[in-house]
Amino acid sequence: MESESRGETASFGQKVSAWPARIRSYVEDLQAEMRRVTWPSWQQVRATTTVVVVSVFAFAAYFFVVDLAITRLITKIFDTFSK
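Below the sequence we write its predicted structure tokens.
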């Protein structure tokens, strides 16, 4: 009843038969939007990729050092209290 009050009186069969048209409309809209996209140049892609790779290695090195320091600190604490 609630769907009828909103004007959605289409039966299941009508909804199923409308799928091909809806899919076609979706694909056409998608293609139109993709034509409007401005893609980065190859030089921009290489530059941003380099920034990402360097950042990943920098963070990996940082977390390695922090992990090593915390591990040594905790080991020292356990060694001190286990004697």
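The helical segments are 2-5, 12-17, 19-36, 42-82.
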